[in-house]
Amino acid sequence: MHVRCPDRLPEDAYRQVLEQMAELSPVVQALPPTAALAELKGALRYHGADAVRLGEMLRVRTISRLGVDIRVGIGSSITVAATASGQVPRPGGVLAVPPDRVTDWLGPLPVEALHGIGPRQAQALRDYGVHSVGLLATVPPATVQRLLGGRAGRQAADRARGVDPRPVFPRALPATASVHRAFPRHTLDGAAVRAALLDLVVTLAVQLRGGGRAARGLTLALRFAGGTTWEKSRRLPEASAHDDDLRTMAYRLIDAAGLQRGRITAITLKADDLVSADQVAEQISLDEVRETRLVAEEVSDRIRAKFGPDAIRPATTLLRVS
To answer: Which residue has the higher pLDDT, 179 or 291?
Structure first.
């Protein structure tokens, strides 16, 4: 079963959809940001229902409990199920392809509808005269490999025939942590925005260290007047929960936004793909400045633990010198 959630679904709602899927099947594979897979073989016997019934149950639960309408595709392989979910009209529904009708159902579809075929690959096939999945299935695999490349061509030729041996692996959505700051008024002041971002960095770093976790990546989201948003993610060179590492990456993200006259109303900074701090290797540094900062960081954490999280804040006040 392949599930597609609405575009731009908040992460909390996406996690709740995964929890609803886990109630039906113990084998759920998250496909961020808004899709997921579930293996139904054992679930069919456990619930005493067919696959279509389980798909309908899941959709009813997500609508009634979460207010989220999903598109569900059911098939004998990942490719068939994912292609089926892509053919369900919005906002949601359930489409099941019986195993004995896979090739008949795939045949009339345009090549770009086959799961795993990107826009460039579809255009290369169309230039060759292959406009449907059925035609792609009749083309010799060697020819498809010359058009799309060795591995991609071999996979496309197999999937057009409904062949996809990949299993569903249980995979939960990586843990995240986020901090948010809303401005009382629309701000055009770049210095004020960077000051707020620095405060968020310190708050997030303290939160991670307090929980014994480290982040492998950062995501910065900006909300502008009028409701438009901008979001960008980057991986850290190595997992970290230190102020300096998070600050450096956060400043790169804000620089990538290219802010000039954008009226910002809110900032959200999110630590992605969290891991236990015990799994992070701490490299011995010969940089005395960095070592001094790490010691100061430990002292600051002890002070916050004793006197409260606001006992020490970053120096973000701008002094105007006349």
So the answer is: 179
First to last CA, the chain: 67
For helices 51-61 and 11-24, the axis angle rounded to 10 degrees is: 140
How far apart are alpha carbons 198 and 290 in whole angstroms? 18
> How would residue 168 be classed by pLDDT, with cut points 50, 70 and 90?
very high
SS3 252: helix
Would strands 264-276 and 2-4 be described as parallel, antiparallel, or unpaired?
unpaired
CA dist list (Å): 272 to 18, 74, 253: 18, 31, 14
Q: What's residue 289's pLDDT?
A: 63
Q: Residues 242, 285: contact at Cβ < 8 Å?
A: no
Find, among 17, 129, 34, 121, the residue nearest to 82 by Cα: 34
68 vs 63: CA distance, rounded Å: 5
Question: Which CATH number fits the domain 177-307, given the four candidates 3.40.50.300, 3.30.1490.100, 3.20.20.150, 1.10.10.10?
Answer: 3.30.1490.100
Dump pLDDT digits (tens) for 37-93: 999 998 999 999 999 999 999 999 999 999 999 999 999 999 999 999 999 999 999
Q: How far apart are CA 115 and CA 82, in angstroms?
A: 6
> Whole-prediction pTM value?
0.70
Would you state the pLDDT for residue 317? 46
Continuous H helices in 139-189: 141-148, 150-160
